[in-house]
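Human: I hope this is not a bother. Would you mind checking the protein record under this note? Thank you for your patience.
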Amino acid sequence: MVEAPSPLPHQNDTYEFCIILPPRINSAGIWENLAYPSTMLTYSLPLLEMQIVMIFVSSHLIYAILKPLGITLFASQIIAGLILGPPIMGKLNAFRNIFYRRELGVEMIDAVSVFGFTLFIFLTGVKMDVKMAFNSTKKSVVIGIISLLSPIVVGIVLHKTFNEHKRMNDVIKTERIVGTLIESTTSFSVIACVLTELKIINSELGRLALSSASVGDLSTLFLVHIISLSQDWATSPLLALQRVLVAFLFITVLFFVFRPMMFWIIKKTPEGEPIEEVYIVAILMVAIGCAIFTHWTQQAPLIGAFLFGLAVPDGPPLGSTLINKFECFVNGIFLAVYITASAMRVNPRKMVSNPPRVKFSIISFFLTFLAKFISCFIASFVSFMPFRDSLAFGLIMSSKGVVELAYFSTFRDNWVISEATFSVAVFAILVNATVIPLLVRFLYDPVSRKYAGYKRRNLMHLKPDAELRVLACIHWPENVSAMIDLLDLTCPMTESPSVIYALHLIELMARDSPVFIAHHKHETNTNVGGSFEDILAFYQYEQNNWGLVTVNAFTAISPPKLMHEDICSMALDKQTSFIILPFHRKWSVNGSVEAENNVVRNVNCSVLDRSPCSVGILIDRGGRRKPMKSSSYSVGILFLGGKDDREALTLAKRMARDPRVKLTVIRLIAYQDRRDVLDWDTIMDIEILKDVKQNNGVLGNDCDIMYVEQVSDSGSQTAKIIRSVADYYDLIIVGRRYGVESIQSMGLSEWSEFPELGIIGDLFASTDLDSRVSVLVVQQQHYISESRH
């Protein structure tokens, strides 16, 4: 056996060493190891298991120590790799026998880590929604493209600046070009991992980052293939055409053969039942086969696995099943091995011996990061995102992670980049992965801002010809009829139809984990007791208004503390403008209070605090209900002023377009309000009341609207007015006006029982009010850019 110098794992050098044939896979057991302890290291499987255990234990031990400081698991795994590498632990002979045995150790850990990373890339493709990239908003597309191009431009300028030698080595030129491209990437999986670590993946900020990252990821893939194709064309046009044809046929087979087959699997699987194991195994084998095929065609194996992952239908039942089955094992074991093993290849000695490359690499990393950060910050800030959120967004889009580490590791294997550059890259990625999460946590509060919106999703800013998206939540069967009656009053029309998302919320009991079910219109049963009958009423409402109303029904079974998460996440995901919540109090037939549910009340309060759109709480006293197709329906609105009242009036105007609805707008004004002192809120109140006062047909010639002004100089007068008008209407709409003090409500806040309803809404929910009128309390969306700080 020829002795070799201290080796680095995964290095493509040539050495001579002895291999025992046949290969020794598994040991004879514990007794042999007790007699000869070093014998275990001559068997492949025990050696691999020992390596995995050491990597797992060391990385998680470091993570447990550094987690209180805000250090991520990914950064801890890199630190573990640096410690286990040749400069530190690699100097110990006992350790070298475990990790650096050329005939066994290096090759085994290398093969396992690359296999695991291939599965990780496949699962990344499964989780990535291609439609997100193609259906992205203009903002996401612009940010995604800018985040790719701006660092490339800076890299080109930097390359020209440092090109002091006109006859620069082609190897160095290639290294700089490749390094710039890697530093310019915005990886979807890396951004998703960062957002998950920060627990803001469902926030508006997180969704914008994911959408922009998906655009950037696909743009990078397209750009790399264009560069590769141009190089092939310069060498051999025939070879370039062959590769284009093979790639086209491969993608065609994926999306027009395998994808329909997977939809057939989904169709064959009954709702609520798991996907059969044989299909899961077959899909995994096809993913590995795709990686082998692209490797055979002289392309990166990861591309085949990633593209097949994109072809897998995302979400339940197939995509979610693959994620649930494999993600924990792949991320927890295989990915940890890959990251740590890659970091073990760092060689600080090469950095010291090659200062020019190290200098250029450091400057390149810093300037390309700065270019990406500044471009994403400016693009988001000019799109009316608050200053601190724009800073956080720019940092998130500049994050580096396992994908960039894999790129550098792969090109290091192929000797495209030097050991010095690779070592600098690993340290740069470590600094990036350590500092960025800390800064984002400082700039962005995930608790209070998780569902905060950057877009105006409310009724006032809804275009006249836009569809009205409403999330209707129900807890009990009694909520259904009142909810459908209210939805019918929103007057869906051909030019402005309604899209209803009916969400049945069930408290988690006798079950280990939450369940979320997307119902189908033609299903005949459900596994959730009582849910189907409630959902069926909404589908019947859709049938009665065919072409005007679209219903999508869901059931969420979750703990009470997380119910508001289901509501806000769906509202954000479906981009709804209005959420309707049932009040927590139920009335009996005779008008007395039958029951109160504090769980429902807590859910309502949480939604009001965090909702990404406008919210309405429906108080159904169970009286004065009329059939949906009744010839008349009397609606009243009490208007005191303010954004919540303006939102309520906007909804009332929409209802007034229905010929069945007679709308009465009662404006409560104080004597002092008649002075000529106007603020911005008052000007907006006057503007929105203008067409109601004139009743000039702007809202429609068939609108039956009456405008009334009543003077109220105290809270007691307002309470008397409410008691006097309550019995004249089938539905009364009021604004929540939480925290807003006025002369009309003076003295009432001290007696308020339900702050979530506001002062006026609380009066209608009081047991002292002898009325059966239904009430809708409206709160306008808390728009985050109202104060840009």
